[in-house]
C-alpha cells in the first residue's frame, strides 16, 4: 500500500512512478547530500525559518464561539447548517426524480444488504473482544 501511494504521489505531481522504485539511488543521493553539509538544518532554515510565505487568518467570534482552555472553538452557524441540509434535500430530490422505480428498488435492496453485512461485521468484532 505504501509503495502504491508513493508511486501515485510521484505520478500525480509530474514525476516518474518508476523513480520511486530506485531506492538504492535515492539513498545514495541522500548520503551524498548529507556529506556535503548540514542537509536537514539547511532544509529547515530554507523552507521553515526563512520562508517568506505567510498567512494571516482572522476569525470574528460570534454567538457560536466558545472559549475552552484558552482556545476559541468556532462552530458552524445553525443557519448555515440548515441551508446546507436544504441544498442537500433539493439535490437528492433531483436525483430521485430521474430514477426509475426499478433503480429505486435496487438502491433499497443494496442498502438493506449493506446494513446486514455491517451488522454481521459488528457481530464478528464483538465476538473477538
Ends: how far apart?
Answer: 28 Å
The residue fraction in helices comes out at 55-70%
Total number of distinct structural domains: 2
Tell the overall outline: elongated
The low-confidence runs, each spanning 5 or more residues with pLDDT under 50, are: none
Task: Work out the helix count.
Answer: 5
Q: Give the integer mean of the pLDDT values.
A: 78
Total strand count, please?
2
**Overall radius of gyration:** 26 Å
Task: Tell me the strand percentage band.
Answer: 5-15%
Reported for the largest beta sheet, the result is:
2 strands, antiparallel
Order of helices and strands: HHHEEHH
How would you write the strand order of the largest sheet? 1-2
Structural class category: mainly alpha
What does this structure look like?
The chain is mainly alpha-helical and about 130 residues long. It folds into two domains: about 1-50, no CATH class; about 75-129, no CATH class. About 65% of the residues lie in helices and about 5% in strands. The protein contains five helices and two strands. The protein has a two-stranded antiparallel sheet. A hairpin with a 2-residue loop joins strand 1 and strand 2 (about 70-75). The longest helix has 28 residues, at about 100-129. The radius of gyration is 26 Å and the shape is elongated. It starts with a helix and ends with a helix.
Amino acid at each position: 500500500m505504501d509503495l502504491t501511494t508513493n508511486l501515485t504521489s510521484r505520478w500525480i505531481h509530474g514525476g516518474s512512478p518508476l523513480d520511486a522504485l530506485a531506492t538504492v539511488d535515492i539513498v545514495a543521493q541522500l548520503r551524498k547530500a548529507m556529506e556535503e553539509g548540514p542537509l536537514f538544518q539547511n532544509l529547515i532554515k530554507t523552507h521553515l525559518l526563512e520562508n517568506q510565505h505567510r498567512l494571516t487568518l482572522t476569525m470574528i467570534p460570534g454567538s457560536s464561539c466558545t472559549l475552552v482552555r484558552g482556545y476559541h472553538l468556532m462552530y458552524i452557524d445553525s443557519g448555515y447548517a440548515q441551508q446546507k441540509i436544504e441544498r442537500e434535500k433539493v439535490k437528492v430530490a433531483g436525483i430521485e426524480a430521474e430514477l426509475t422505480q426499478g433503480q429505486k428498488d435496487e438502491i433499497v435492496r443494496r442498502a438493506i444488504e449493506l446494513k446486514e453485512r455491517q451488522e454481521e461485521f459488528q457481530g464478528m468484532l464483538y465476538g473477538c473482544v
